[in-house]
Predict the 3D structure of the following.
Amino acid sequence: MVKLKNGYIATNLQEALRIMKEEKVTPYGGGTDLMVEQKGKPTYLFLHKVAELKEIKQDKQYIKMGSEVTFTDIEQSNIAPQILKDAIAKLAAPAIRNFGTVGGNIGNGSAKADSALIFFVTDSFIHLKSIGSDRIIPIKQFYKKRKELDLKEGELIVEILIPKKHLEHYYYKKIGARNSLAISRVSFAGLFDTQDGVITHLATAFGAVESMIVRHPEIDDILIGKTIEEAKNLKNIYLETYEKAIHPNAGRVSKEYRKTVCMNLLEDFLRQNGIS
């Protein structure tokens, strides 16, 4: 451990967890959001020296990303899924991608976080640790509301677990003021799988629409288990149900604009998978 004027540098995970228990500190990943929003004179726990948090690895079930993995690390990884790379490619400038981390992007608690949208649509899990606890929870459970996370005192986001199934057939769009280097006005991700003409998996998620990332698996269930022809007959019911479930916030653009873009993206996702 290294003591600084404005905080501590942890050199391994156990040391970081001990500091989290003993001191009132703010975990510091890349700092690309944290420094912009800094208020007062917080004491930071700098995590860039913790090797255990910088790994991208996999087992039979999951792709596992440490919370200190940067967006550039993801772009250069042979393991990271392509849908996540596509989202990262439109995230900020290269300098920010060199420093920004997935743990920080999630820990920010924003519905506009580009990587969080992908973790939602893939139904990923968040691995949390403290000196006295070790738990893995679904990301949808981790987000309680805007800027409020299921993060107990002394806990640290250590890893994101992405299920390896259903990652190949995907759809991703980000709508912003520019093609890249822009905050999302609406973003959308979808996964789609069939076997023997039957829809075996369908997952959808919207970012930058409500105060939380929008993920409605109960609506996607309308089409799962159906043939493509059956899904065509249910398409209008599916779209109408989704339209009623989306309640956009106003911001840089109107609620009506966001709702229209959401439905257009959703319909295009279905069309590209043969449901038109």
Notes: The chain has ten helices and 14 strands. The radius of gyration is 19 Å. The mean pLDDT is 91. The first strand starts at residue 2 and ends at 4.
